[in-house]
Specification:
globular; alpha/beta; 16 helices; 16% strand; two-stranded parallel sheet; eight-stranded mixed β-sheet
Length: 378
């Protein structure tokens, strides 16, 4: 695989935010703290390997000097949130993620009887996938162990192993990962829902699950559970429960940090930005012509409909939509080449820049859209 260096893209004329544009954008942010630092919370949508576009978006945010406080995501969004919660710089992240050969995650197929071709097409032909899995008596084409090992190594470079480490890296930082519990038919947010299990389960059961308390739970394991795309990767396990991709129940958990105290909502102190991947090829009406296409349409609808329904008018001013259509990359296109990476990265930067330069972007409008006046809490 040809090595890809984001710095080459950043040198393209007209790509990066100019100093004048930066000054204009920052004038629309809430006042910085006493050290001159500006903060934001970030929530990232799932989208498989297309999440490379988030890397370009994060470079744009880094050019503005944004430091991240609360982070959350599902599937590929959980990967982004986790690496962003480390103490690695944006340069480090580009080095690690930009040159990553995603095909290494597919090096452990669960059975020689699984005769799939290009992984990019697997979820578009779920009937064949189901047939091969049934014959091989497997619940997923690939093991997620190679991914877990890679992520553990990557996060450890940024001094992040457990959820307890998150606040050691930056005070008041939070990280939340969404997963889907198939065995109990429920969505879980890690580590929050592990706290709730602590009162119901015995300490011995926690040790069997690999942690003594919720904060000791492995971030890499949480993300591995969240990115276990059904049929594609084998389900993970939390005790005896089978866990799959959090996108089944909430692929874009923008709601996760919208908190209330009693009956009185708490005004935000800084922006919460939601980073969402858009593909107009997928967004267009799905053609359903036969029973097989119904199965495929059900799978697609399951991954996106709930969050669309719950996106409110107030969300419009904080969602950065990154249209990745022209990159021509599917969720499971693990054979991503350098040109496709470059295009996703470029789209991520440009469309994040466009969002910030929009006349509709401002702190006052953000507060008003979320139901508050012009005042924020201290």
């Amino acid at each position: 695989m040809t090595k890809w260096y984001p710095q080459q893209i950043l040198q393209e004329a007209g790509l990066r935010i100019s100093e004048a544009q930066k000054a204009t954008i920052l004038s629309k942010f809430p006042p910085p703290d006493e050290s001159g630092q500006i903060y934001a919370d970030g929530v990232f949508e799932g989208g498989g390997v297309r999440g490379v576009a988030f890397l370009g978006a994060l470079r744009c945010c880094s050019d503005l000097g944004i430091q991240w406080r609360k982070l959350a995501g599902t599937s590929a969004g959980a990967i982004t949130a986790a690496v962003l919660a480390t103490d690695l710089s944006i340069d480090d992240l580009e080095e690690l993620l930009g040159q990553l050969d995603y095909s290494i995650f597919l090096t452990k197929k669960n059975s020689p009887l699984i005769l799939n071709g290009d992984p990019a097409d697997d979820l578009q032909s779920p009937v064949w996938t189901l047939l091969f899995l049934t014959v091989s008596r497997q619940m997923g084409e690939y093991s997620s162990v190679p991914f877990r090992l890679w992520l553990e190594e990557t996060l450890s470079q940024g001094k992040l192993r457990t959820f307890a480490d998150v606040k050691k890296i930056l005070k008041d930082r939070e990280l939340k990962v969404v997963i889907s519990n198939l065995s109990r038919g429920e969505m879980l947010v890690i580590p929050d829902d592990l706290h709730r299990r602590e009162s119901a389960d015995s300490p011995a059961m926690h040790e069997e699950l690999g942690y003594r308390n919720a904060e000791d739970f492995s971030v890499a394991e949480a993300v591995r559970l969240s990115m276990s795309i059904p049929l594609f990767f084998e389900p993970g396990k939390l005790g005896e429960d089978l866990i799959v991709d959090g996108g089944i129940l909430s692929n874009f958990p923008l709601w996760i940090y919208d908190r209330q105290s009693g009956s009185t909502p708490i005004p935000p102190r800084w922006f919460t930005f939601g980073f969402r991947l858009v593909d107009t090829g997928i967004e267009s009406q799905i053609k359903i012509q036969h029973p097989v296409s119904i199965l495929s349409a059900m799978f697609t609808t399951m991954m996106r409909a709930r969050d669309r329904y719950h996106q409110r008018e107030m969300d419009k001013g904080r969602v950065i939509n990154i249209d990745v259509t022209e990159a021509g990359v599917t969720t499971t296109d693990f054979n991503l080449d350098s040109q496709q990476k470059a295009q996703l990265y470029r789209l991520g930067y440009l469309q994040t820049k466009r969002f910030f330069l929009s006349p509709n972007f401002s702190w006052e409008k953000h507060l008003k859209a979320r139901g508050f006046g012009g005042e924020s809490s201290s």
